[in-house]
Amino acid sequence: MQAAGRFVVLGAFVALTAQARAQSGALPLKHAPARTRAAITPADLMTRLYLYSDDSMMGRMAGSEYNLKATAYIAAEVKRFGLRPAGDSGGYFQNVPLVKRQLEASAGLSVDGAAMRPWDDFVPRDPGRATRAFDGAPAAYAGVLGDSTMLTPDQAAGKFIVIAVRTGPNLPPAAQVNRGALLARYRTAAGIAVVALETFPPQAINFFRQPQTILRDGTPTGDTTSLPVYVYVNAAGARLLLGAPLDSVRAGAAGKTVHGSVAFVETPAPARNVVAILPGSDPKVKGEYVAIGAHNDHIGFDQTPADHDSLRVFNDAVRRLELAAPNHRVTPDQVQQIHVNVDSLHRAHAARRDSIYNGADDDGSGTTAVLEIAEAFAGARVKPKRSIIFVWHTGEELGLFGSQYFTDHPTVTRDSIVAQLNMDMVGRGRADDENGGGPGYLQLIGTRRLSTELGDLIETVNKARKQPFTFDYQFDATGHPEQYYCRSDHYMYARYGIPIAFFTTGNHRDYHQVTDEPEYIDYDKLAHVSQFVYDIATTVANLDHRVVVDKPKPDPHGNCVQ
What pTM was estimated for this model as a whole? Predict the structure, then answer.
């Protein structure tokens, strides 16, 4: 699942790994996996997931050779099943045009001959598009963020503006400044410097320093205007830009002349969806499709490995506090009070150094579940009336890029897709993962947002099961702060008015951690979820009508609203 707030997780990670120095010692797989069967079984899912989330996959980051390796495995399997390719040029792959953007080596700022170095004296943020030149622009103090005395957009035009941010125990972190809102307000400025760098932990700066991977679709947007350069500075940087201490100037005060350049260069980052079709058995409706999907990527690997077991014990303690808290939030003081007896852990067994985000649950579980479902459909004696299209999307973790590209450029007619069933993190949901968790725990999101009938149908299929699931709909609530409806691939279908259902067993202590390993997956439950989605897809595919859309369709190019 796409991250909503990674800095807290990174903070825990860095705090526990500062002394580690060796790469993960796990070896790549040396043998091909055992041949799986057409039936959906825990054993088959375990076989697949241990391969798909093996260290040799190096975290499957979209735009990397390791994601290409992962998608090659998926394509080989669906070819073995005998499914029809539905990607580009008669193959199973749909190439997705991702690019990596990196700060130019010559980037820098200077004032009166004094140089400011990127990542030390200022931290640039990449808007993902062209930024305008600012060399020779005058600096100006725009005031404190949120104050009524801030410069107007017209007053800031052509200037390199400096913006202060209030900080304090009851205020949000300065890192949460709404960058998009500032860029929109001061769109005609030469540059924007937000005085917040002192509040950033080193891991946040390192995160910003990594190349940004974006989707470069080429579809005209109608807006090609360059944006102001956007940087974070500290108080010393603000003093250099303004020629005076920040607390001695008022909004509108003129500063120094700024020289230099901050630009980003792009390089291709190959990535691909995997798309395959099981043709329907009824000539009248085989041109319609039930889509089943998951995302094939994860978040890669880190240069500094962690002590796997102490990290997991720490995150377990944090998770217990989250589950016990009324608002499911922990305070910084509570986190500070958590102590891990590393010596005791190491007496039990040697330290396990780990730097690879294997993503066994996120979304290895969904990926392998879709493979199991595809094999089961391919091996079934009676095929469903409508066709089934299986899509393993790339780049979900980077911004839902693969599903965005597929729905913008579908390899079947978009209107022929009658529903989309999405699985993201479907291998956990125990009592220590979620309140009320257990073997039958399952979260449903979006099932009635476009089609009441789809939500009712899912409930009906569940009631017919020998072991029905207990559905948790709390995360589907309008305005829920986790925004899960907007954070996985199903939304890219929903924005075009395609009814969706999002299946997940929820968040847990190993989310976006190096500890998201296949050893912690509940394979019996993963098999039950897979069979459940198979049964729902069969029911939808065999309906005597298309699933009825009876709710308003969103703007396909607008922002997602839960």
Answer: 0.85
